[in-house]
Amino acid sequence: CVPDAQNIVTCPAVSLNNGQTKTLSLQLKLQAGTACPTDVSAVATATSSTNDPVSGNNTSSLQTTNVCPK
Predict the structure, then answer these.
(1) What CA–CA distances, in Å, run from 13 to 7, 39, 63?
(2) Is the pLDDT at 65 greater than 90, yes or no?
(3) pTM
(4) Residue 40 CB neighbour total at 10 angstroms
C-alpha cells in the first residue's frame, strides 16, 4: 500500500470470490506536534469493475484516539 500527497493510501488490486474478505492493517504516524490526545479517523473503500449486489458493505470506518507518551 502506498500513500499519496493527500495521505490517501492505495493498495494493489486483490481478487476476491463471492463471500471472501480481505484484511489490511495500517500503521499511522501522526505529524510531530500533533496535540495529545487527538481523535484519529480512517475510512476504507473497496471498488470493483464487476457488479456488486451488496454494495453497502464496501466501506468501513474507524475512529480512535492516539496514545500519549508518559
Answers:
(1) 19, 30, 25
(2) yes
(3) 0.66
(4) 13
Q: State how beta strands 2-3 and 9-10 pair.
A: antiparallel
CB contact at 8 A, 66 and 36: yes
C-alpha distances in Å from residue 36, one per residue of 6, 22, 50, 52, 70: 22, 32, 43, 41, 11
- The β-bridge partners of 9 are 3
Q: Is 55 helix (H, G, I), strand (E, B) or coil?
A: helix
Residue 25, pLDDT > 80, answer: yes
Q: Which of 13, 41, 11, 36 is nearest to 25 (CA)?
A: 11
